[in-house]
Amino acid sequence: MTTPAVHLKSISKGRVRWLEPLIHSGLGFCTLISIITTATIVFVLAKESFGFFQEIAPSEFFFGTSWVPMFKPSSFGVLPLLWGTLIVTFGAALISIPIGLASAIYLSEYASAGKRAVIKPLLELLAGIPTVVYGYFALTFITPALKVVFPDLQVFNALSGAVVVGVMVLPMIATLSDNALKAVPDSLRQGAYALGATSYEVTSQVVVPAGLSGVMASFILAISRAIGETMAVTLAAGATPNLSFTFLESIQTMTAYIVQVSMGDTPAGGVAYQTMFAVAGLLFVITLTLNIISQWILERYREVYQ
Amino acid sequence: MNSQQMRKNDTAEVVAISEDERILGIDDVTICYSDNPAVKNVSFDIARNKITSIIGPSGCGKSTLLRSLNRMNEFISEVSLKGRVSFDGQDLYAKSVDPVEVRQHIGMVFQKPNPFPKSIYKNVSWGPTVNQYDGSIPELVERSLKQASLWNEVKDRLNDSALGLSGGQQQRLCIARALAIEPTVLLMDEPCSALDPISTAHIENLMYDLKSRYTIVIVTHNMQQAARVSDYTAFMEMGNLIEFGETDQIFTRPQKKRTEEYVTGRFG
Amino acid sequence: MPLSIELSKPKQRESLNKRHFKAKIFARFCACVTWMGTALLLILLYQIFSDGLSWLDWDFLNNFPSRFPERAGIKSALAGTIWLISLVAVFAIPVGVATAIYIEEFSKKNLLSRIIELNISNLAGVPSIVYGIIGLTIFVRGLSLERSLISGALTMSLLILPVIIIASIEAIKTVPISIRSAAFALGATRWQTVWSHVLPASFPGILTGVILALSRAIGETAPLLMIGALTYVAFVPEGPMDSFTALPIQIFNWVSRPQEEFHQLAAAAIIVLLTVLLAMNSVAIFVRHKMEKKLQ
């Protein structure tokens, strides 16, 4: 008795033969969009900045201390804007890094599972609040509260900007650092406690150093976010480029300036309009550099525990 | 010197250790994880400057018991201990006793080597530094590494990362680290189970040398190891102590049938 | 000879006490600071509700913005936001999920794929205002789409695309390889495996990521300002080419005014915005919980 020959059914295979590569290409095309986006960003910023630097010498832009692009006599020194971004970011870091790290330590080393279950969602909530809401908070609560301590405080000032941005990036630092600390294996803690050490000693000298790369990466990401922040800082800190050591007066950050240009009636194509791209280009380069550094730290110093 | 009296401990066969021989006393100890008992009514003593091993099949509670000797169980929530663990006659779990201080006297080496991601030197020096050792720390580090039989291999690279050492070397580093705080008792929780046979032999020789200075309590599921190194052996099963006595006697003339079955390899 | 441990030298006892004291202070400090942060959230919510609740009524939802606070409302802003999110969902979700599928399932793990992933995580960190500039240059001016809903939606889609991609990749990564192997062994093609097995399994994770990305898009203001979302809009958009305003823009506009009443109006609008976000996040959390339960 011979076994009948088996004919492989290939009905569906017929259709699949041309559908599959088509889908493959479709998906690939979608992936291309993300590459095109980056290319577009770089291209647009570079092209317009190049045009800008045909008119204005780079040395004036990068080293000039006066920023008056819209009126005559005009000057195009970006330092006041850079300075504004810097002091807001610096103040925000001063607030958010210690508090964020302390919160992360509390969450990973001290808090019970119950407390953790309450605080972590609250942090996610804080992180999800839109920046314009923080701007509102700055004007209606933070600035008046600060005015009690600093009577000379103006309505728009760098200090409020720093505080509100600090509060904004705090949940980010807390969550990311908590993840980094939780990833430190428990065996390290056990080994440290077994040597007769207190929780402070174990946490500060063994756990945090072991999770340091993740913690540092979170700091850098938060700083990058603070630099790129627009709405809250515009509402809180104002629109006056200012290069003095002033926390109580209005300043203008790079982001606030970009918003100001776009909302105004600056004619497209002129040098004044191109300042938007030059400043945005600078902003892009700074945040990109910081993001790459944080990724590099994570990769290079990824703790090997075994 | 030893007064050998057979003492019935519930149904356990326990050899008594005289008071001046005894360094750690375990007295009717029951340990529960959220009401599930892991160790039930265990009583036996640890003799000074001897190696005591605790053997038994997996899950019999030997690690739990070991960890209760230096109050390391406290990091697990919902753990409760009934009974008395005494160190030199003093109740380790009394309200006035500081667990941090307990661990300065009773050190621990863990199953998987867990060196800190720091330099070799820093690993050994960290414990004494934090405990505010008032002597020369470099000398202490050298002494500890020598006692752990690791000095010659690392003396030229003390500032290298500890993670670059092999498994056996890392475990010896952990032993040196534990010795650096100058404890009286050293607890070892299956210290060789993650190591190759050569490293294991190395560490077993080490234990022999350390005996003169320290008291060692070792948990092991390797019976041959227990037979090779220890002076006294406790056999546990399912949280209960079945038998405790001198190692020769446990392995050649066990008093309980269960012990005999375990040591002849009929189960576990 | 018995040693005594409790009677350690007074100097040692003292130094131990100091160390314990330090540890206690540190623990208290960390706890305090953490609860302070949550207290801040409560203050924020209290401020918003006390300012805005009284202005929140049906008229508020149904009126257009006005110079007169009593007559002002968020009808146009709400309509604009709804239009915007719908369009963003249509653009961003398929492209984002498709990209994630391609990266995880179809591409070979080589240098190119590494570059693509690096590129995406960098895009995730680009400030939203830069996306606004691109939107302005490419969509509004370049493609002459003017200050329309579609310009806004395309800009926002680019902004949240990296977020969707990263979340989807994470979700797809959690699907065990065994599921794919089983499908291949039965003669399925790669796409059939993805469509019938991988996608359904990673669906909850992807859904969570999508919802979170969309809620991010709802709250973003800067890119919309850049592409020219108007701040005084007294009509409801009727098609994708219409100009528009959105909730965050309206809030920004009202907060920028000096009058107290407008700040309170802003608070009312914020309540609406936060309610929408809370609803969306609750759905995401609910889905995540169900997913975790299923895995158990």
Provide a descriptive summary of the structure in words.
The complex is a heterotrimer of chains A (306), B (268) and C (296). Chain A has 306 residues and is mostly helical. In chain A, 74% of the residues lie in helices and 1% in strands. In chain A, strand 1 (67-68) and strand 2 form a beta hairpin. Chain A starts with 10 loop residues before the first helix and ends in a 6-residue tail after the last helix. Chain B has one domain (10-263): P-loop containing nucleotide triphosphate hydrolases (Rossmann fold, 3-Layer(aba) Sandwich). Chain B has an eight-stranded mixed beta sheet with strand order 1-2-12-11-5-10-9-8, with helices on both faces. In chain B, strand 11 (232-237) and strand 12 form a beta hairpin. The radius of gyration of chain C is 26 Å and the shape is flat. The model of chain C has no long low-confidence stretch (mean pLDDT 86). Chains in contact: A-B, A-C, B-C. Chains A and C meet through helix 1, helix 3, helix 4, helix 5 and helix 6 of A and helix 1, helix 3, helix 4, helix 5 and helix 6 of C.
By helix and strand content of chain B, what is the structural category? alpha/beta
The H-and-E topology of chain A, N to C, reads as HHEEHHHHHHHHHH
Helix content of chain A: over 70%
Q: What is the strand arrangement across the widest sheet of chain A? A: 1-2
| H and E order of chain B | EEEEEHEEHEHHHHEHEHEEHH
Q: Structural class of the helices, strands and pairings of chain A? A: mainly alpha
Average pLDDT confidence of chain B is 90
Question: At the first level of CATH, what is the class of chain B?
Answer: Alpha Beta
Q: What value does the Rg of chain B take, in angstroms?
A: 18 Å
Note the total helix count of chain B: 10
Quaternary organisation of the protein chains? heterotrimer
Query: How would you name the CATH homologous superfamily of chain B?
Result: P-loop containing nucleotide triphosphate hydrolases
Number of strands of chain B: 12
Percent of residues of chain B in helical segments? 25-40%
- End-to-end C-alpha gap of chain A: 63 Å
Proportion of beta-strand residues of chain B = 25-35%
| β-strand number of chain A | 2
Q: First CA to last CA of chain B: what distance?
A: 35 Å
The low-confidence runs of chain B, each spanning 5 or more residues with pLDDT under 50, are 1-9
- Total tally of structural domains of chain A: 1
